[in-house]
Amino acid sequence: MKALFLEDVGRLTLRDVERPVPGPAELLVRVEACGICGTDRHLFRGEFPARPPVTLGHEFSGVIEAVGNAVTGFQPSMRVTGDPNIACGHCAQCQKGRVNLCLNLQAIGIHRNGGFADYVVIPQNQTHALPETLDPLAGAFCEPLACCLHGVDLAKIAVGASVVVIGGGVIGLLTVQLAKLAGASRIVLVTRSAAKRDLAIRLGATDGLDPAGGDVEVRLSSPEGLLPGGADVVFECAGLAETVEQAPRLTARGGTCVLLGVLPAGERVTFEPFDLLFREVAVITSFLNPHTHRRAAALIASGAIRVAPLVSRTISLAQAVEAISQPAGGGEIRALVVPGG
Ligand code: NAP
Questions:
Q1: In this structure, which residue's CA is closest to atom 26 in ligand 1?
Q2: What are 9-25's pLDDT values in tens digits?
Protein backbone atom coordinates (compact mmCIF):
# COMPACT_ATOMS: atom_id res chain seq x y z
CA MET A 1 0.00 0.00 0.00
CA LYS A 2 0.98 3.67 -0.27
CA ALA A 3 1.66 5.69 2.88
CA LEU A 4 2.90 9.23 3.36
CA PHE A 5 5.74 9.26 5.87
CA LEU A 6 7.18 12.15 7.81
CA GLU A 7 10.79 10.91 7.63
CA ASP A 8 12.16 13.80 9.63
CA VAL A 9 11.45 17.49 10.14
CA GLY A 10 10.83 19.03 6.71
CA ARG A 11 10.92 15.70 4.81
CA LEU A 12 7.81 13.85 3.61
CA THR A 13 7.94 10.85 1.27
CA LEU A 14 5.30 8.66 -0.29
CA ARG A 15 6.40 5.08 0.30
CA ASP A 16 5.23 1.64 -0.82
CA VAL A 17 4.94 -0.40 2.38
CA GLU A 18 3.42 -3.68 3.53
CA ARG A 19 -0.24 -3.44 4.45
CA PRO A 20 -0.34 -3.53 8.29
CA VAL A 21 -1.87 -6.50 10.09
CA PRO A 22 -4.28 -5.53 12.89
CA GLY A 23 -3.59 -6.90 16.38
CA PRO A 24 -6.26 -8.93 18.24
CA ALA A 25 -8.16 -5.82 19.45
CA GLU A 26 -7.52 -3.69 16.37
CA LEU A 27 -9.19 -2.97 13.03
CA LEU A 28 -7.64 -2.47 9.62
CA VAL A 29 -9.48 0.39 7.91
CA ARG A 30 -9.32 1.39 4.23
CA VAL A 31 -9.04 5.17 4.45
CA GLU A 32 -11.71 7.04 2.48
CA ALA A 33 -10.69 10.55 3.55
CA CYS A 34 -8.21 12.23 5.86
CA GLY A 35 -8.16 15.96 6.55
CA ILE A 36 -5.01 18.09 6.43
CA CYS A 37 -5.01 19.97 9.71
CA GLY A 38 -2.75 22.87 10.70
CA THR A 39 -1.10 20.44 13.14
CA ASP A 40 0.17 18.34 10.20
CA ARG A 41 1.96 21.44 8.90
CA HIS A 42 3.37 22.16 12.39
CA LEU A 43 4.62 18.55 12.59
CA PHE A 44 6.24 18.90 9.16
CA ARG A 45 8.03 22.08 10.23
CA GLY A 46 9.13 20.58 13.58
CA GLU A 47 7.04 23.09 15.56
CA PHE A 48 5.23 20.24 17.27
CA PRO A 49 7.06 17.01 18.18
CA ALA A 50 6.20 13.83 16.25
CA ARG A 51 7.91 10.45 16.31
CA PRO A 52 9.36 10.04 12.80
CA PRO A 53 9.38 8.04 10.69
CA VAL A 54 5.61 8.04 11.01
CA THR A 55 2.61 8.30 8.70
CA LEU A 56 0.80 11.56 9.48
CA GLY A 57 -2.98 12.08 9.37
CA HIS A 58 -5.23 12.14 12.44
CA GLU A 59 -8.59 13.22 10.92
CA PHE A 60 -9.58 10.05 9.10
CA SER A 61 -12.47 7.73 8.42
CA GLY A 62 -12.99 4.77 6.17
CA VAL A 63 -14.32 1.27 5.75
CA ILE A 64 -13.23 -1.76 7.78
CA GLU A 65 -11.16 -4.20 5.76
CA ALA A 66 -10.30 -6.70 8.50
CA VAL A 67 -10.71 -7.09 12.26
CA GLY A 68 -8.53 -8.75 14.90
CA ASN A 69 -9.81 -11.96 16.49
CA ALA A 70 -10.77 -10.25 19.79
CA VAL A 71 -12.81 -7.50 18.13
CA THR A 72 -16.54 -7.50 18.80
CA GLY A 73 -19.23 -5.27 17.35
CA PHE A 74 -17.36 -4.33 14.17
CA GLN A 75 -17.27 -6.25 10.90
CA PRO A 76 -15.58 -5.74 7.55
CA SER A 77 -17.33 -3.28 5.22
CA MET A 78 -18.67 -1.11 8.09
CA ARG A 79 -17.84 2.60 7.78
CA VAL A 80 -16.05 3.94 10.87
CA THR A 81 -14.24 6.95 12.29
CA GLY A 82 -11.22 6.67 14.55
CA ASP A 83 -10.53 8.84 17.59
CA PRO A 84 -6.77 9.31 17.16
CA ASN A 85 -6.01 10.33 20.74
CA ILE A 86 -5.15 7.26 22.78
CA ALA A 87 -5.03 7.69 26.55
CA CYS A 88 -3.15 5.17 28.73
CA GLY A 89 -6.09 4.62 31.09
CA HIS A 90 -3.93 4.25 34.19
CA CYS A 91 -2.23 7.60 34.90
CA ALA A 92 -3.62 10.02 37.51
CA GLN A 93 -5.46 12.10 34.89
CA CYS A 94 -7.01 9.07 33.17
CA GLN A 95 -8.14 7.80 36.56
CA LYS A 96 -9.96 11.11 37.01
CA GLY A 97 -11.57 10.68 33.57
CA ARG A 98 -9.54 13.54 32.09
CA VAL A 99 -8.24 11.48 29.21
CA ASN A 100 -7.17 14.48 27.10
CA LEU A 101 -4.68 15.33 29.84
CA CYS A 102 -3.27 11.76 29.94
CA LEU A 103 0.40 11.85 30.91
CA ASN A 104 1.17 9.17 28.32
CA LEU A 105 -1.10 10.38 25.52
CA GLN A 106 -0.31 8.91 22.10
CA ALA A 107 -1.92 9.99 18.87
CA ILE A 108 -2.52 8.09 15.66
CA GLY A 109 -0.91 10.21 12.95
CA ILE A 110 1.66 11.69 15.34
CA HIS A 111 3.17 8.84 17.39
CA ARG A 112 1.63 5.90 15.49
CA ASN A 113 1.01 5.56 11.77
CA GLY A 114 -2.02 7.59 10.68
CA GLY A 115 -4.50 8.19 7.92
CA PHE A 116 -2.44 9.58 5.03
CA ALA A 117 -2.25 6.04 3.69
CA ASP A 118 -4.37 3.49 1.89
CA TYR A 119 -4.96 1.71 5.22
CA VAL A 120 -4.75 2.62 8.90
CA VAL A 121 -4.90 0.44 12.03
CA ILE A 122 -7.24 1.63 14.80
CA PRO A 123 -7.71 0.08 18.26
CA GLN A 124 -11.27 -1.15 18.69
CA ASN A 125 -11.93 1.13 21.66
CA GLN A 126 -10.99 4.20 19.60
CA THR A 127 -13.47 3.31 16.84
CA HIS A 128 -17.00 4.59 16.27
CA ALA A 129 -19.47 3.44 13.63
CA LEU A 130 -20.80 5.71 10.87
CA PRO A 131 -23.75 5.00 8.57
CA GLU A 132 -23.12 3.15 5.31
CA THR A 133 -25.07 5.85 3.52
CA LEU A 134 -22.90 8.72 4.78
CA ASP A 135 -20.86 10.77 2.30
CA PRO A 136 -17.43 9.06 2.49
CA LEU A 137 -15.75 12.46 2.98
CA ALA A 138 -17.87 13.48 5.97
CA GLY A 139 -16.30 11.17 8.53
CA ALA A 140 -13.00 13.05 8.27
CA PHE A 141 -14.63 15.90 10.22
CA CYS A 142 -15.43 13.82 13.33
CA GLU A 143 -12.10 14.60 15.01
CA PRO A 144 -12.16 18.40 14.63
CA LEU A 145 -15.87 18.42 15.52
CA ALA A 146 -15.12 16.38 18.66
CA CYS A 147 -12.57 19.05 19.71
CA CYS A 148 -15.13 21.84 19.16
CA LEU A 149 -17.72 19.84 21.07
CA HIS A 150 -15.45 19.78 24.12
CA GLY A 151 -15.10 23.57 23.92
CA VAL A 152 -18.85 24.03 23.60
CA ASP A 153 -19.46 21.63 26.52
CA LEU A 154 -17.07 23.68 28.66
CA ALA A 155 -18.78 26.95 27.67
CA LYS A 156 -22.17 25.76 29.01
CA ILE A 157 -24.10 27.94 26.54
CA ALA A 158 -27.50 28.83 27.98
CA VAL A 159 -30.43 28.67 25.54
CA GLY A 160 -30.85 32.18 24.17
CA ALA A 161 -27.27 33.24 24.94
CA SER A 162 -25.19 35.44 22.62
CA VAL A 163 -22.02 33.96 21.15
CA VAL A 164 -19.03 35.35 19.27
CA VAL A 165 -16.74 33.04 17.32
CA ILE A 166 -13.37 34.49 16.24
CA GLY A 167 -11.82 32.77 13.20
CA GLY A 168 -13.72 31.22 10.29
CA GLY A 169 -11.65 28.09 9.66
CA VAL A 170 -12.96 24.55 10.21
CA ILE A 171 -12.88 24.97 13.97
CA GLY A 172 -14.77 28.27 13.89
CA LEU A 173 -17.37 27.10 11.36
CA LEU A 174 -18.05 23.89 13.32
CA THR A 175 -18.28 25.90 16.55
CA VAL A 176 -20.82 28.24 14.94
CA GLN A 177 -22.99 25.24 14.13
CA LEU A 178 -22.64 23.74 17.62
CA ALA A 179 -23.52 27.09 19.21
CA LYS A 180 -26.67 27.15 17.10
CA LEU A 181 -27.56 23.61 18.20
CA ALA A 182 -26.87 24.62 21.81
CA GLY A 183 -29.57 27.28 21.52
CA ALA A 184 -27.64 30.53 21.08
CA SER A 185 -29.89 33.35 19.86
CA ARG A 186 -27.14 35.54 18.36
CA ILE A 187 -23.97 34.11 16.80
CA VAL A 188 -21.42 36.51 15.33
CA LEU A 189 -18.49 35.13 13.36
CA VAL A 190 -15.46 37.42 13.17
CA THR A 191 -13.26 36.52 10.22
CA ARG A 192 -11.61 38.41 7.34
CA SER A 193 -12.92 36.38 4.40
CA ALA A 194 -16.32 37.46 3.09
CA ALA A 195 -16.88 33.95 1.68
CA LYS A 196 -16.38 32.41 5.13
CA ARG A 197 -18.70 34.96 6.74
CA ASP A 198 -21.39 34.20 4.13
CA LEU A 199 -20.94 30.47 4.67
CA ALA A 200 -21.22 30.94 8.45
CA ILE A 201 -24.56 32.69 7.97
CA ARG A 202 -25.77 29.79 5.81
CA LEU A 203 -24.65 27.46 8.63
CA GLY A 204 -26.48 29.31 11.41
CA ALA A 205 -24.56 32.48 12.35
CA THR A 206 -26.73 35.58 12.64
CA ASP A 207 -23.99 38.08 11.70
CA GLY A 208 -20.50 38.25 10.26
CA LEU A 209 -17.90 40.87 11.13
CA ASP A 210 -14.77 41.67 9.14
CA PRO A 211 -11.92 42.39 11.60
CA ALA A 212 -10.19 44.43 8.90
CA GLY A 213 -13.15 46.82 8.73
CA GLY A 214 -12.37 48.79 11.92
CA ASP A 215 -12.13 48.30 15.69
CA VAL A 216 -13.82 44.95 16.46
CA GLU A 217 -14.45 45.84 20.09
CA VAL A 218 -16.27 49.05 19.20
CA ARG A 219 -18.33 47.43 16.43
CA LEU A 220 -19.21 44.47 18.59
CA SER A 221 -19.54 45.37 22.25
CA SER A 222 -19.96 49.17 22.44
CA PRO A 223 -23.48 50.52 23.12
CA GLU A 224 -23.97 50.93 19.33
CA GLY A 225 -22.34 47.56 18.55
CA LEU A 226 -23.90 44.28 17.44
CA LEU A 227 -23.88 42.91 21.01
CA PRO A 228 -23.78 45.86 23.43
CA GLY A 229 -21.80 44.88 26.52
CA GLY A 230 -20.25 41.89 24.75
CA ALA A 231 -21.21 38.25 24.21
CA ASP A 232 -22.18 35.76 26.89
CA VAL A 233 -19.70 33.31 25.34
CA VAL A 234 -16.72 34.00 23.09
CA PHE A 235 -14.77 31.25 21.32
CA GLU A 236 -11.27 32.09 20.09
CA CYS A 237 -10.71 29.85 17.06
CA ALA A 238 -8.09 31.83 15.10
CA GLY A 239 -5.01 30.94 17.15
CA LEU A 240 -3.42 34.39 17.01
CA ALA A 241 -2.00 36.45 19.89
CA GLU A 242 -4.08 39.49 18.91
CA THR A 243 -7.35 37.53 18.85
CA VAL A 244 -6.55 35.71 22.11
CA GLU A 245 -6.07 39.14 23.72
CA GLN A 246 -9.23 40.43 22.06
CA ALA A 247 -11.50 37.51 23.07
CA PRO A 248 -11.95 38.33 26.80
CA ARG A 249 -12.56 41.99 25.92
CA LEU A 250 -15.48 40.90 23.70
CA THR A 251 -16.93 38.79 26.54
CA ALA A 252 -19.79 40.25 28.60
CA ARG A 253 -19.72 40.66 32.37
CA GLY A 254 -20.02 37.23 33.97
CA GLY A 255 -19.43 35.59 30.60
CA THR A 256 -17.09 32.84 29.44
CA CYS A 257 -14.26 33.04 26.97
CA VAL A 258 -13.06 29.71 25.57
CA LEU A 259 -9.63 29.52 23.98
CA LEU A 260 -9.56 26.80 21.30
CA GLY A 261 -6.86 28.30 19.05
CA VAL A 262 -3.28 27.10 19.51
CA LEU A 263 -0.47 29.64 19.71
CA PRO A 264 3.15 28.60 19.13
CA ALA A 265 4.89 27.37 22.31
CA GLY A 266 6.60 30.23 24.12
CA GLU A 267 4.36 32.95 22.68
CA ARG A 268 2.98 35.35 25.31
CA VAL A 269 -0.17 37.49 25.38
CA THR A 270 -1.31 40.27 27.74
CA PHE A 271 -4.52 40.25 29.77
CA GLU A 272 -5.69 42.82 32.28
CA PRO A 273 -6.54 40.82 35.43
CA PHE A 274 -8.28 43.84 36.97
CA ASP A 275 -10.72 43.93 34.07
CA LEU A 276 -11.25 40.16 34.08
CA LEU A 277 -11.82 40.10 37.84
CA PHE A 278 -14.16 43.08 38.07
CA ARG A 279 -16.24 41.78 35.18
CA GLU A 280 -15.82 38.16 36.41
CA VAL A 281 -14.95 36.91 32.94
CA ALA A 282 -13.92 33.25 32.95
CA VAL A 283 -11.12 32.54 30.49
CA ILE A 284 -10.90 28.80 29.93
CA THR A 285 -8.96 26.57 27.56
CA SER A 286 -10.23 23.56 25.64
CA PHE A 287 -7.83 20.82 24.59
CA LEU A 288 -8.67 17.89 22.30
CA ASN A 289 -11.73 15.70 22.44
CA PRO A 290 -12.24 13.92 25.77
CA HIS A 291 -15.25 11.58 25.51
CA THR A 292 -16.74 13.62 22.65
CA HIS A 293 -15.83 11.61 19.53
CA ARG A 294 -18.92 9.40 19.67
CA ARG A 295 -21.27 12.41 19.86
CA ALA A 296 -19.35 14.10 17.06
CA ALA A 297 -19.86 11.00 14.91
CA ALA A 298 -23.58 11.01 15.78
CA LEU A 299 -23.93 14.70 14.85
CA ILE A 300 -22.27 14.13 11.49
CA ALA A 301 -24.18 10.90 10.86
CA SER A 302 -27.50 12.63 11.53
CA GLY A 303 -26.69 15.62 9.32
CA ALA A 304 -27.22 17.97 12.28
CA ILE A 305 -23.75 19.36 11.56
CA ARG A 306 -23.08 20.16 7.90
CA VAL A 307 -19.57 19.45 6.73
CA ALA A 308 -19.81 19.22 2.92
CA PRO A 309 -19.46 23.04 2.53
CA LEU A 310 -16.20 22.89 4.50
CA VAL A 311 -14.45 20.71 1.90
CA SER A 312 -12.32 23.06 -0.22
CA ARG A 313 -10.70 20.34 -2.37
CA THR A 314 -9.85 16.65 -2.42
CA ILE A 315 -6.32 15.58 -3.32
CA SER A 316 -4.34 12.36 -3.76
CA LEU A 317 -1.65 11.04 -1.42
CA ALA A 318 0.99 12.19 -3.91
CA GLN A 319 -0.44 15.73 -3.96
CA ALA A 320 -0.52 15.75 -0.15
CA VAL A 321 3.28 16.03 0.02
CA GLU A 322 3.14 19.54 -1.41
CA ALA A 323 -0.09 20.47 0.36
CA ILE A 324 1.35 19.68 3.82
CA SER A 325 4.68 21.36 3.16
CA GLN A 326 3.03 24.66 2.08
CA PRO A 327 0.77 26.96 4.12
CA ALA A 328 -2.96 26.43 3.42
CA GLY A 329 -4.09 28.23 0.26
CA GLY A 330 -5.96 31.53 0.71
CA GLY A 331 -9.61 30.94 1.43
CA GLU A 332 -9.11 27.21 1.92
CA ILE A 333 -11.18 25.72 4.72
CA ARG A 334 -10.23 22.03 4.59
CA ALA A 335 -8.31 19.98 2.04
CA LEU A 336 -9.06 16.26 2.27
CA VAL A 337 -6.68 13.56 1.14
CA VAL A 338 -8.50 10.75 -0.64
CA PRO A 339 -6.07 7.81 -0.89
CA GLY A 340 -6.43 5.84 -4.07
CA GLY A 341 -8.47 8.72 -5.45
P1 NAP B 1 -7.54 27.93 10.32
O2 NAP B 1 -8.14 27.33 9.12
O3 NAP B 1 -6.20 28.57 10.26
O4 NAP B 1 -8.60 29.00 10.84
C5 NAP B 1 -8.28 30.16 11.53
C6 NAP B 1 -9.03 31.28 10.85
O7 NAP B 1 -8.80 32.51 11.53
C8 NAP B 1 -8.57 31.51 9.42
O9 NAP B 1 -9.43 30.76 8.57
C10 NAP B 1 -8.70 33.03 9.23
O11 NAP B 1 -9.76 33.24 8.31
C12 NAP B 1 -9.11 33.55 10.63
N13 NAP B 1 -8.40 34.75 11.02
C14 NAP B 1 -7.15 35.15 10.72
N15 NAP B 1 -6.89 36.35 11.26
C16 NAP B 1 -8.01 36.71 11.93
C17 NAP B 1 -8.38 37.83 12.72
N18 NAP B 1 -7.54 38.84 12.94
N19 NAP B 1 -9.61 37.86 13.28
C20 NAP B 1 -10.47 36.86 13.08
N21 NAP B 1 -10.19 35.75 12.34
C22 NAP B 1 -8.97 35.69 11.79
O23 NAP B 1 -7.48 26.88 11.50
P24 NAP B 1 -8.53 25.81 12.05
O25 NAP B 1 -8.22 24.48 11.51
O26 NAP B 1 -9.92 26.32 11.95
O27 NAP B 1 -8.06 25.82 13.59
C28 NAP B 1 -8.23 26.98 14.36
C29 NAP B 1 -7.33 26.93 15.58
O30 NAP B 1 -7.77 25.88 16.44
C31 NAP B 1 -5.86 26.62 15.25
O32 NAP B 1 -5.04 27.39 16.10
C33 NAP B 1 -5.75 25.15 15.59
O34 NAP B 1 -4.43 24.78 15.92
C35 NAP B 1 -6.67 25.07 16.78
N36 NAP B 1 -7.19 23.73 17.14
C37 NAP B 1 -7.39 23.52 18.45
C38 NAP B 1 -7.89 22.33 18.88
C39 NAP B 1 -8.12 22.13 20.35
O40 NAP B 1 -8.32 21.00 20.77
N41 NAP B 1 -8.10 23.18 21.13
C42 NAP B 1 -8.20 21.32 17.95
C43 NAP B 1 -8.00 21.57 16.60
C44 NAP B 1 -7.50 22.80 16.19
P45 NAP B 1 -9.88 34.61 7.50
O46 NAP B 1 -8.86 34.55 6.42
O47 NAP B 1 -11.30 34.62 7.06
O48 NAP B 1 -9.60 35.71 8.49
A1: 169
A2: 999 999 999 999 999 99
